[in-house]
Write a structure and sequence with these properties.
Blueprint lengths: L32 H17 L10 H38 L4
């Protein structure tokens, strides 16, 4: 007998087919009232501000990997901005002052 689930629709592919993640149900008995209150508060914050800050969500090694991956992007953007703001106007100014024969 096979445990494979038959897929009848593309919509079913959005589910956890391997059943590796237990779905969260706020009405389960093991969910504390404090957690329910925190979830409600976070949801209200998202509706009000458009974002929520979750402290200690990532551990230090994860933050380091994110910093290492994004630093070249930030540095590249800074250099591009520096080039656009300083070098290009200076180049145009210099070219405008040149006497063409």
């Amino acid at each position: 007998m096979s445990n494979k689930k038959k897929i009848d629709s593309v919509v079913e592919l959005t589910e956890d087919l391997a059943a590796t993640h237990k779905p969260f149900r706020s009405d389960e008995a093991d969910v504390s009232e404090a957690l329910d209150a925190q979830i409600a508060q976070d949801f209200e914050t998202v509706k009000k501000n458009g974002y929520v800050i979750i402290e200690n969500l990532l551990i230090a090694p994860q933050l380091e990997r994110i910093r290492d991956a994004t630093l070249p992007l930030v540095f590249g953007l800074a250099m591009s901005t520096l080039l656009t703001v300083l070098v290009v106007p200076l180049l145009y100014y210099t070219l405008a002052r040149c006497k063409w024969v």
